[in-house]
Each structure stands twice: as C-alpha cells, then as structure tokens.
C-alpha cells in the first residue's frame, strides 16, 4: 500500500520548522512567551544575595502575625505551650500527641483566671479560643500534626469541656448582660455630665468637652471606640484626625446650624491596614436646644476653637473665614492632629498623641454614676443602641445594597452576600443620627436611672473614693485580705453599693446663687488681667472683651454671655438700662430665633400671674408711646382700649423674655445654636488642685490651658449649700463651714474676709488672717511655741520633747484621744456606715461632715474629756451641775452653770451687793470664783498726743490709735 512507504521523521528539522510556523498562526497564547521577562532578569541579576536572604527569612520566620491583639494571643499560646512541654519533658522539636494536646487544655481550664472580678471561672468560649490558637500554632510549627491530631481528639476535648460546664468549672454564654444605650439615654447622660460640671467644677473644661465629644462621635457615626480612637496595643496613626472631619458651610450662611459634617473612618475593625475601604458618615447640627450637649457638630467646633485649631478665635470669625474659602470648608490649622487627644496626669490634653479606647470606657463609667444608673454603661452599648434606634426608624434607610440593586447590576446572591454589590453602591448618605435625634426611640429595655430634680446637686465628675477604714471593714466582714486585686474588688463593691443607695444631695438655694446679695463677695483667686495667654495661640483676634458672668451658677462663670438667644422685644427693658450693666454687659446681645415652643407651651393662667414692676412699665411706655414735642392735652395722652391691650401684651412678653433670659443663663447646657458654642468655647473655670500659687498668673498658665477661644482662667468657687452665700475654692473649707452654718440669716460672709490689720508682724512671715483670734493662734502655735513634754498623762521621764506645736498635737490625737471603747456612729441609721471609731477626733469629724452637726450637737455624742486651759497648764474641768437662782420667788426658770452669770443675776435682779452675790453664787454652784487683778490704767504712749484720758482695756486703746492717730 502506498501509505506504508511513507515514513515520518518526527524529530527532523523539516517537521520542527513546520510546527513553529503552525504554532505562530494557530496558538493564541504565543504572544505571552515574554511574560515575566523583567522579573526574570531581576532574579538572575540578584541571585547571589537573594539566595542567602531567602534562606534566612525561611529559617527565622516568626509565628506572630495579624493585628496586635491577635499577635498577643499567639504569643500567649506559644509561651504557655513551651512551658507545658517543659513540665512533661517533651522534646520541642516534635509535635504534641493528641493526648498531650488534651492535657494542655485540661491545664488551661484549671489555671486560667477570668478577666471580670465578679466572675468565678472562665467561660467555655475562652477555652475554645485558646484551643483554636493552639492548633494554629502547631500547624505552623510541625508538619506531621495531622498524624497526631484528628476528629478523635476533637470529640474527646469537646466532651471534656461540656462535662466541665456541668461541673461548674466553666461558664457558658456571656457573663456580662448586654446593654443598649440609645440616643434618648445618651442625651440624658451628656446633659447631666455638663450639669454636674457646672455644679461641682472641673479641673479642665478641655477634658470635659473632649470626653463628651468622644462619646457623641461614636454615637453620630454608629462606630466602635477603636474606630475613632486608637485601639489598645496599636502604635501607629490608626485614629481619626482633624483632616478626616469635613465641615461644609451652606451658601450665604452665617450660623453653625448651616454646617454639614462629613466624617471619614479610615481605620475600622478588621480593615486598619486596608486602604480605600473607608466608612463615611454624614450628619447635621441638632436644632433642639435641649439636645445641644449631644450635638456632635457643635462639640467639634468648640473643641477646635479651644485648641486654637481654627482660623479665628470666635465662631463668627471662623464662619466668616470659611465662607471665603473654596468649597466653604472649615480649615484646620493642624489637620494631622488627633481629634481625641491623650489626657495627661495633670488633667491636660496632649494634642500630639491620640486617646485610647479606655478613655471612652472611663467616661461612660463616670457618666453612669452621675446619671444614677444602677449599672455602668459600656462603650459597646452605644453601638448596640445605635443599631436599635436605626431598626426602629419610621422609614427604611435609602442608599444601601439590596436585592433590587444586585438584580439591576446582574449580580448573583453570592455577590450581594459577600459585599461586592455594596462596594458598587458606596457609602449610604442617609443622616441616621439626625433621624434618631428627631424621633428618639423609647426603649422599654433601656437601663433605669435615678430621676434628679431641677435644683438638685448631681455627683461630681469623678469616681467616689472611700477611706481605708471602710475598705478594711468590708474586708473583715467578708473574711478576706484587702490586698492587690481583692482590694480593688472591694472598692468596686463599695462603689456599686454607694451608687445604688445614693440619697439625693442637698439642694442649692437658686435664689441665692442666681442673684447677687450683700453677703456675696468677689473671689480672691481671680487671675490678674495681665495673665499669660498661652500655650496655643489662634490667628486673628477679637475686639470684644469677655467679661465674667457673676452670680449665675455655682461660681463666677467667666464666660462671654451668649449672643442671640432671645428676641430683643422680649427682654425686660430694665435689663437694657444702664443700671443692669453690673449683671449683664453690653456685649450680651440676644438672639432673634428663640424656639416658639418655650413661649407657647406656657399655660395662659401662668402668664396672667406674671407681674411687672412700675419702673418696667414706665420704661416700656417710653418706648411704645414716646412723648411728642410741645404741650399735650388730655385727649392725646389717653390710651384707647386697643392700645392698652397692646401695651399689656408687650409688658407680658417682656416679662417672659426676662424669665427666659435668666433661665438660659442658669442652664447654659440648653443654649441654642451659636450661643451654646460661644459659651463653652470661652468658659475657663478650673477647680483648684495641687499645691501651687493659685494667684500667680504665670503659675496658673502652667496648670490651666490658656489661649485659643478661652477666657482668662478663674478659680471655681464651692458654695455653702445652706444658702448663706459663703464660697471658697477649697471644698473642705466649705464643708467645715457648713458644719456650723445656720442658714442665710445666721452667717455674715464679711467676717471671713481677711484684713491687712491681721497680718503677722514676725520677720519673714507676713501671713494675713481673717480675725485677731486666728492671728493670735498663729503666733502662739508657730512663733511663740516653747518645746515641752507631754502634759496629758505620759511619764515625764520617758516623754520626748516636742519641738513644734503640730508634733505635740499629733501626739495628743494618737495617744490621748481614745474613746473608752471602740464604738460605731451613734447615728448609724442615718449614714448607714458600719464603721468602728477608736478616737474622739475621728468620730467628731464624722459627725460634723457626714451628719452636718455643729460643735454643741457633736459634744452630746462624745464622752467627757480633759480640756486644755493652756498649752503650758492643764486641769480637769468638771462638769457643773446646772442650778436655778437660790432666791425664793425668783421668776427666772433658766438654770445657771457659770459663776459670773449667777453673780450678775443676783446683783441686777435682786439688788444684792457684789461681795454677797459672789458668796451666794459660790455656795450655790459649789465653785470658787477666780480673783483677777484690777486692770492698770495707762495713757496714750504717743509723744504728741494731747489726750489726757487713761485706758484700762486694749480694745479702747486700739480704737484711740485708729481714730486719733490714724494708725492701723
């Protein structure tokens, strides 16, 4: 056959040429033959170094990877696995067997400690997490793990863990119950937080405002704490910066209500190292004045103004600068700074270092305490509350990926579920924060809080502290040692008990706080006018001086009065008169856009009860019916009924406006719009802490932030809660005063004022005291003290010599002030403190400050003690039995305990001679009257004095010096 003669040489050159020609024309992938040529050349060029580097990288590869928290868990497992291998003498080069893996799990169950102090044992979920990390580490470390670990070992470990749950060695489920903090609860917490700051004072208003901003930034963005602040264990720039905040002003707008916010979250959970997968949130300012403390836009502007991070020192200057910018965006001076800054130990902000997530946790704990929640709220509850609020909105959200969108794009269900469709749609642009604020969801499962009255004082912005004796008493009751973590657990238990049983605090006399009286005095700790202005200076300036607002809150609030809060026609005209400038400065202009609800909600019968004084009527009449030039007749002077009705309406509105103005100044946290920003951007009261000169402007600038939009620092004053007007910057001094205060009419503030005539004359001293008695005590205790031994019962031969008055007093308190036997508070039913007192001094302090008893009331609960007549001589003072007048027929029923009182009564009421009255008084009271030397009369020692009078009393001689010789 012909075909048998045909021979094919497959390896012949002719066949190869024909194959090449065929491939070039029929193979569609021939054009990719040069793919990777550049990389190949690089590999060949650097083969010498790459060969060594690659070998080192493989041999030195570490197991730790992923996020810092994941790397920490991996390192935790690696360290414990190595320790376990050492205990069982296992070779680290070989993999653990299935039995040893289970033995390691058993060891973890016994040795792991729970994170929560009240949790007895760890949960099964925690053990499973460590189990998973263990297997991941073994798979990385050993190739033959599959031969040692399989489904058999998995079944045995699962059975063991289930048995441990039944035995109570492990818990199952979440130990801490879930909480939901919706907008309604958060609004209440922020308002109480600001209210407490005004009532009790804060160390630094910058810190207070930032803490609230951190919470509201999470709420507005429905974010986690780690989305806006830097997560624990991270060290980079994984936080929100000022450049991530865009505030755009509407066209032809001049108010903060026309600012639109856009926040970019670049470092959300699980995507911190992934670029261009940002979450973007939009929201606007809140319109309701009662929600001003929860308005994130206002808080952002206030925070930036106080830091000097804006181009302008006031809101008006910032808005003017923004309106001239391209795109009308607020420009930041330091865009790379963190929005939430680190809080240093000195209660100052570190502008260059970001805050951690623990700041939000601490803030929520303090807010929960102030609001009166029975259980503190965690930051996770904010995100859950946001989800619940959004789920209950009246209308569904638009702009999200849905089945309809996926169908329109031709996406399968898998693309919709895996987020591919969401990537096409982009971020949702619905303003969910504003929708939640307009119609807050009334959550039936929201935590309960203690309702506080309008004039009730809230707890201060700090966690309650407890004395060591309270902690030790609780430890003795529980039979444990109060050391380490056990002591912290006891403190937490005391704090929860105090929070649950907290009684309403004493109410302030609002009339005394809000109106200046004759007894009110100016703070002596005010900063001079030439105080240093600061650490951070903003560009621009303001020609309007900010005057302190005095007598309107718990202290002299030195902030500029809010602008634009009440229509001018609603203001009491007397407030606009020159006489009102002492209270309201001319810079305190008022708004033209007050919410109408604050007027319309007032009942008609309440309006009819408002009264206006005659001076106000006369002033308003001058504005409404000005007198015409020239003489006027009676017909022109008369007012028709329509004019009278209009006048009555204007007077009524003026009185309402006056009340609204006073209410706004008393509750600045409810100011609206620009007024709220102006108020809190300028306030700069500080609560004095530490031992430094609080009157030195340069020293104040080291401890209190200045500059930016802030006013000059002014010390916060604590007021007596009995309404007497007494105020001091030291709260302990006020507490001491309250123990003896009898109310508004029983105390004169002027008696506590220091005078130059009571200045110590000793060389190098120069201290000034409020009265002569305090000056004499100071001289005796400091300058005239003579070293002595104990004179209260100690052995004179062994007693040390006390060189100072304070050492002697300390010895008296510790050695000679004991009670006959330890006892509890006699008023334990009122305070509820199961404390045991061993010294009279401690019991006296407790009765004074805790129960507000005066000195006479305290003595009723203390045993009789030795009374010091003088520090050089001591005698036992026996209590005299009260006796009535010995004269028969005397109508006076009051008993006598003092010889001088009974002697004077016998002389004046019964006409007895002096000697007979003394003898009868001594026989009646069984006491002897001390005989005093007759005073020596002296003349005025001044050489040029023309007076011939002689003086037997020092007070009269001092008065003569002051009036005749003008000596002080």
Automatic annotation (TrEMBL):
Basic and acidic residues composition bias: residue spans: 1-14
Annotated transmembrane regions: none
Q: Which InterPro entries match?
A: Znf_C2H2_type
Keywords for this protein: Metal-binding, Zinc, Zinc-finger
Q: Where is this region: Disordered?
A: 1-33, 499-550
Limits of the C2H2-type domain: 758-788
Which molecular function terms from Gene Ontology are attached?
zinc ion binding
User: Compositional bias (Low complexity) at which positions?
Assistant: 531-542
**Identification of the protein by name:** C2H2-type domain-containing protein
Q: Which organism is it from?
A: Exophiala spinifera
């Amino acid at each position: 056959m012909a075909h048998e003669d045909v021979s094919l040489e497959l390896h012949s050159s002719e066949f190869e040429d024909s194959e090449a020609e065929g491939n070039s024309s029929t193979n569609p992938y021939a054009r990719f033959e040069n793919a990777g040529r550049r990389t190949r050349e690089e590999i060949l060029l650097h083969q010498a170094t790459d060969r060594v580097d690659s070998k080192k990288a493989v041999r030195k590869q570490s197991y730790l990877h992923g996020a810092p928290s994941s790397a920490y868990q991996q390192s935790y497992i690696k360290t414990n696995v190595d320790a376990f291998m050492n205990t069982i003498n296992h070779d680290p080069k070989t993999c653990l067997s299935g039995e040893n893996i289970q033995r390691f799990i058993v060891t973890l169950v016994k040795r792991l400690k729970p994170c929560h102090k009240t949790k007895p044992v760890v949960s099964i979920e925690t053990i499973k997490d460590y189990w998973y990390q263990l297997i991941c580490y073994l798979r990385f470390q050993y190739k033959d793990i599959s031969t040692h670990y399989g489904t058999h070992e998995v079944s045995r470990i699962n059975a063991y863990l289930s048995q441990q749950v039944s035995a109570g060695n492990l818990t199952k489920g979440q130990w801490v119950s879930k909480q939901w903090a919706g907008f309604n609860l958060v609004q209440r917490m922020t308002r109480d937080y600001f209210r407490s700051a005004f009532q009790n004072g804060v160390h630094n208003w910058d810190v207070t405002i930032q803490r609230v901003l951190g919470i509201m930034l999470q709420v507005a963005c429905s974010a986690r704490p780690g989305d806006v602040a830097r997560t624990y264990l991270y060290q980079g720039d994984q936080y929100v910066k000022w450049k991530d905040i865009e505030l755009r002003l509407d066209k032809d707008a001049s108010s903060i209500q026309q600012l639109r916010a856009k926040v970019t979250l670049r470092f959300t959970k699980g995507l911190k190292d992934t670029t261009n997968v940002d979450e973007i949130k939009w929201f606007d300012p809140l319109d309701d004045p009662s929600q001003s403390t929860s308005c994130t836009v206002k808080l952002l502007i206030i925070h930036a103004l106080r830091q000097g991070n804006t181009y302008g020192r006031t809101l008006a200057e910032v808005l003017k600068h923004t309106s001239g910018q391209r795109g009308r965006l607020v420009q930041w001076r330091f865009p790379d700074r963190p929005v939430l800054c680190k809080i240093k130990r000195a209660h100052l902000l570190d502008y260059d270092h970001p805050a951690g997530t623990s700041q939000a946790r601490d803030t929520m704990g303090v807010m929960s305490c102030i609001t009166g929640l029975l259980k503190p709220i965690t930051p996770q509850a904010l995100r859950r509350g946001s989800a619940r609020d959004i789920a209950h909105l009246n209308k569904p959200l638009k702009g999200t990926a849905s089945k309809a969108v996926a169908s329109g794009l031709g996406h399968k269900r898998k693309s919709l579920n895996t987020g591919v469709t969401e990537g096409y749609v982009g971020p949702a642009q619905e303003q969910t924060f504003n929708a939640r604020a307009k119609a807050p969801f009334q959550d039936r499962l929201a935590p309960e809080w203690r309702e506080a009255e309008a004039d009730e004082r809230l707890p201060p912005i700090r966690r309650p502290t407890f004395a060591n004796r309270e902690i030790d008493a609780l430890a003795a009751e529980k039979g444990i040692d109060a050391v380490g973590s056990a002591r912290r657990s006891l403190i937490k238990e005391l704090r929860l008990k105090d929070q649950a049983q907290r009684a309403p605090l004493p109410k302030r006399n609002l009339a005394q706080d809000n109106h200046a009286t004759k007894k009110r005095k100016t703070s002596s700790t005010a900063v001079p006018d030439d105080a240093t202005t600061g650490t951070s200076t903003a560009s621009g300036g303001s020609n309007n001086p900010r005057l302190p607002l005095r007598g309107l809150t718990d202290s002299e609030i030195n902030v500029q009065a809010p602008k634009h809060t009440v229509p001018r026609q609603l203001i009491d005209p007397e407030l606009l008169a020159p006489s009102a400038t002492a209270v309201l400065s001319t810079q305190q202009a008022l708004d033209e856009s007050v919410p109408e609800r604050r007027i319309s909600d007032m009942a008609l019968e309440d309006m009819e009860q408002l009264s206006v004084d005659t001076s106000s009527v006369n002033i308003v009449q001058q504005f409404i019916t000005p007198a015409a030039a020239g003489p006027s007749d009676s017909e022109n002077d008369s007012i028709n009924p329509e004019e009278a009705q209009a006048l009555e309406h204007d007077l009524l509105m003026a009185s309402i406006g006056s009340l609204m103005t006073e209410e706004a100044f008393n509750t600045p946290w409810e100011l609206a719009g620009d007024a709220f920003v102006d108020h809190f951007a300028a306030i700069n009261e500080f609560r004095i802490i530490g031992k430094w000169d609080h009157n030195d402007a340069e020293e104040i600038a080291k401890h209190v932030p200045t500059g930016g939009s802030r006013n000059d620092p002014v010390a916060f004053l604590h007021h007596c809660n009995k309404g007497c007007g007494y105020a001091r910057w030291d709260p302990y001094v006020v507490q001491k005063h309250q123990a003896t205060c009898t109310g508004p009419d029983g105390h004169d503030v002027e008696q506590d004022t220091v005078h130059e005539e009571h200045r110590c004359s000793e060389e190098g001293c120069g201290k000034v005291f409020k009265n002569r008695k305090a000056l004499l005590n100071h001289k005796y205790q400091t300058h005239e003290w003579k070293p002595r031994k104990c004179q209260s019962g100690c052995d004179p031969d062994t007693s040390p010599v006390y060189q100072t008055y304070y050492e002697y007093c300390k010895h008296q308190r510790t050695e000679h002030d004991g009670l006959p036997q330890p006892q509890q508070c006699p008023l334990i039913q009122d305070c509820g403190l199961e404390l045991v007192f061993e010294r009279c001094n401690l019991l006296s302090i407790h009765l004074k400050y805790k129960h507000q008893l005066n000195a006479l009331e305290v003595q009723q609960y203390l045993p009789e003690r030795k009374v010091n007549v003088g520090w050089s001589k001591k005698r036992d003072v026996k209590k005299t039995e009260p006796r009535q007048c010995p004269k028969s027929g005397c109508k006076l029923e009051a008993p006598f305990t003092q010889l001088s009182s009974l002697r004077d009564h016998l002389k004046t009421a019964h006409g007895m001679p002096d000697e007979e009255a003394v003898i009868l008084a001594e026989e009646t009271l069984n006491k002897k009257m001390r005989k005093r030397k007759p005073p020596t009369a002296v003349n005025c020692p001044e050489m040029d004095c023309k007076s011939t009078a002689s003086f037997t009393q020092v007070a009269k001689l001092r008065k003569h010096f002051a009036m005749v010789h003008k000596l002080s």
